[in-house]
Amino acid sequence: MEGENTKPKILIFGGTGYFGKYMVKASVSSGHKTFVYARPVTQNSRPSKLEIHKEFQGIGVTIIEGELDEHEKIVSILKQVDVVISTVAYPKFLDQLKIVHAIKVAGNIKRFLPSEFGCEEDRVRPLPPFEAYLEKKRIVRRAIEAAKIPYTFVSANLYGAYFVNVLLRPSESHDDVVVYGSGEAKAVFNYEEDIAKCTIKVINDPRTCNRIVIYRPQTNIISQLELISLWEQKTRRSFKRVHISDEELVKLSQTLPPPEDIPISIMHSLFAKGDSMNFELGEDDIEASKLYPD
Ligand SMILES: NC(=O)c1ccc[n+]([C@@H]2O[C@H](COP(=O)([O-])OP(=O)(O)OC[C@H]3O[C@@H](n4cnc5c(N)ncnc54)[C@H](OP(=O)(O)O)[C@@H]3O)[C@@H](O)[C@H]2O)c1
């Protein structure tokens, strides 16, 4: 039919969250009919949650309210879409096994992208608290493979805006910057909007089916010390570097109570060890900026 939208319809779980919002907007602006499966908003929901729902409705997103254990409801929505992207939060990582099961039952999904969007968890071995976090993502990967669901696992590396805020604290007044480890290890910072736009290309690309795609553009690789220097040039200020050594980070990861032990272990992995750059990409690896040079 003339004018019919033939682009894959996308269902996003966790779409109201920090990264999910970028994903929803990228999906809508590239012309995909977009559905978001979200927990119901109630009178007790945070105003920001209500705002997000309103904003999504305003841009044509279909919101389906429900919980992840509403199997029949999820299966019936899956039958109306082609692609599923999950950006659910850490406490819900293993609940994605329910999505995997529903996708298997529905039988029509052309691609599933689970909630990854971080480091390449099959190739890093961080400190135990972060390792346990990644292990949940690995369990979901293995379940998707076993269910023979077409997938793409996205290793987006560091969310740029998120980590610039964490490291440089631009909205606070301060003279110091915390440096994790020596500050010399390189890391890959990719802006959330770029990650989301790239992911929309990935979902419909036959080259990325049943593959891991790593987002590692050369231009986005930078050490913590280099980032601080750039920030000093931009702000025409100088900041005192306060180092937390490798040993101190390990100790903190062992002594902080859960879940506070997770962020410190993540900082150790990303900045003291440089895990996002700690492995070479071989000929078999798919790197996003090579797939989409523009
Ligand atoms: N690469 C990086 O630098 C980086 C940084 C942070 C996160 N990440 C990754 O990005 C992905 C998404 O993380 P995020 O920080 O964007 O997630 P988030 O904002 O914390 O949450 C995403 C959504 O999950 C649902 N949710 C959250 N807590 C829940 C709970 N207790 N019970 C049920 N549902 C819950 C909510 O959706 P509803 O309320 O609508 O149901 C929420 O909007 C994760 O895989 C995470 O590991 C990567």
TrEMBL record:
Tree of life domain: Eukaryota
InterPro entries according to UniProt: NAD(P)-bd_dom_sf (IPR036291), NmrA-like (IPR008030), NmrA-type/Isoflavone_red_sf (IPR050608), PCBER-like (IPR045312)
SUPFAM superfamilies registered for this protein in UniProt: NAD(P)-binding Rossmann-fold domains
GO molecular function: oxidoreductase activity
Keyword presence, Hydrolase: no
Domain NmrA-like: 7-293
PANTHER family referenced in this protein's UniProt entry, alphabetically: PHENYLCOUMARAN BENZYLIC ETHER REDUCTASE-LIKE PROTEIN, PINORESINOL REDUCTASE-RELATED
Protein name from the UniProt record: NmrA-like domain-containing protein
